[in-house]
Amino acid sequence: MRLFVFALVFAAIPGCTCNPNSVNRGDLNLVSLDDEWELGRQLAAEVDAQVAPLADAEVEAYADAMGASLVAETELSDRAWTFTVIEDPAVNAFALPGGHVYIHSGLVAAAESEAELASVVAHEVAHVVARHSTERMVKAQGLSVVAGLVLGDDPGMIREIVAELIGQGVLARFSRTDETEADALGLRFMAEADYDPDGMAAMFETLLALRQRQPVLFERWFGTHPLSEDRVEAARAGAAEWDGSGWGGDPARFEAARRRVLARTPAAPLAM
């Protein structure tokens, strides 16, 4: 039963076709935002007990700043969010309900530009803003399952969900519709936060190239973020809709953070 519920939380269940400039306007989420944030708090507390954060205040401060700049462009900017860099050479990132985003140090090392890293963080922020996890869970099992978790009726279930999530790398197997929406919303958030939206397609291409060199480090990423040429082309086309040059951000701070990560994570993929 517990593993079944875990699958429900992150299952790929068909959803509606959504306007990429809105946030699930066509889908009904019966979970209140307060309950979703409480569920996220419980899940995050268990994740934090099972992973090792990167012990580098400068890198963490940079991730917090990037996350805050992206969240400021969303409909949920008034909510509390956390951004945590995990000391793990695997290239990955994931988000929990309720505004908790985790970035593996291997992803920071793999990104070749600030815009590439921002594209992944923006994509994960989009999953939270679109409320994909709780929406799919309610559709599959009903509100009572989520309500029970929010109320803390079975803390063992929370621990098992997180143990499976971390141990097997099954972080967020969202539907194709959800992934498409998260890409579109992520492009919007990063462009409005002044990160070059071309970074999303560039990040996809970087990941595909690096996968050929060190496939083990990319198993989790490609297991939960399938990449096709259509998805890369859609990212290019979406970026082209945003006019801009001389995009902002803080490239120097990104490079400094990446150097610090590479110094601490020698097994991470190096720049090509």
From TrEMBL:
A GO cellular component annotation in the UniProt record: membrane
GO molecular function term, any single one: metal ion binding
Protein name as catalogued: Peptidase M48 domain-containing protein
PANTHER family noted in UniProt: METALLOENDOPEPTIDASE OMA1 (PTHR22726), METALLOENDOPEPTIDASE OMA1, MITOCHONDRIAL (PTHR22726:SF1)
Keywords: Hydrolase, Metal-binding, Metalloprotease, Protease, Zinc
Cofactor note: Binds 1 zinc ion per subunit.
Gene Ontology biological process terms, A to Z: proteolysis involved in protein catabolic process
Pfam families: Peptidase_M48
Domain Peptidase M48: 61-237
Family: Belongs to the peptidase M48 family.
Needed cofactors: Zn(2+)
Keyword set includes Transport: no
InterPro entries, per database record: Mito/Outer_Membr_Metalloprot, Peptidase_M48
